[in-house]
Amino acid sequence: MGYQYAAQGQAYMGLATYTTQSMGFYREIIATHLTQSLQPGVPVYCSFKASTGGWGSSRYNSANWAAKAPGLNFFVELPSTSQPFILSGWGTYLFPNSSAIQTDQVLADTSDWITISGVFVPDSVYQYIAITNFYDNSQSSPVLLDSGGWGLFDCAYAFIDEVCVSLDSNFCDMNTALQNHVHNPDLAFAAVLSGNNLTVTAKIPPSRGLRLELLDAAGRRCHSWIWPKAQSRWATQLADLASGVYVLSATDPEGTITSVKLTYLQP
């Protein structure tokens, strides 16, 4: 299926993520039991590395397609496995066209790994994770990878490494959008996100107005405000904010940024 240096250590796993065979229903799945069950309402941080296969030593076993990167979902119990695969227990769960942790990126670079990460707030006592392409073929964004004709296996293949699920945001390799900016001591502040209220307290009241931005786990801006100068405490109300991890950043007129990471649970 190809070769890739491991993202960490000496080994990794692989799985077929797209195929034109078996009417497009065939998928391979990597699944395992969590060392600790998830608790409803308690956020967990998730990440894994993925890279595409292709240009294997045998052309008959070398993928010639690239497709959407696989995603990660959680299960209370793993579905049963039998043949034909689409009629097994997995058939019910394979194509919801969504994943708890996912990206829209197509895996087409055989030279590097990408990090897929996010925050998941469980609604059940999940005990298992499964990684596969949970999208049907029409939403898998297939792209011809091997236009030279070496690969003769009509599928897309992905390598998987460094799978992480943790209560600690510093343990997993999270999206860079979640990383705090270098802090300016003069802009140090604390923030509390509780219920529908956001409260920000400054160690030193800002001498000039600051721009506040609330970013989600993907780095998208959810809200922005101006924090008036000389106010050591500022508060506002938020509505329709989804549970998850956010970054609140403060920017002064010179563009200096400091930020804090917040976890929010819907009341």
Describe the structure.
The chain has about 270 residues and is mainly beta. Helices cover about 0% and strands about 40% of the residues. The chain folds into two domains: about 150 residues, Jelly Rolls; about 90 residues, Sandwich (Immunoglobulin-like). It has no helices and 16 strands. Strands 1, 3, 4, 6, 8 and 9 form a six-stranded mixed sheet that branches. It has a four-stranded antiparallel sheet with strand order 13-12-15-16, with no helix packed on it. About 5% of the residues have low confidence.
Short description:
With about 270 residues, the chain is an all-beta fold. The protein is built from no helices and 16 strands.
What oligomeric assembly is this protein in?
Answer: single chain
Order of helices and strands: EEEEEEEEEEEEEEEE
Number of helices: 0
State the major sheet. 6 strands, mixed
| Cα radius of gyration in angstroms | 22 Å
Number of E-type strands: 16
- In total, the number of domains comes to 2
* CATH topology descriptor of the largest domain: Jelly Rolls
CATH class category label of the largest domain: Mainly Beta
Low-pLDDT runs of 5+ residues are 176-183
Q: Kindly estimate the percentage of residues that lie in beta strands according to DSSP.
A: 35-45%
N-to-C CA distance: 48 Å
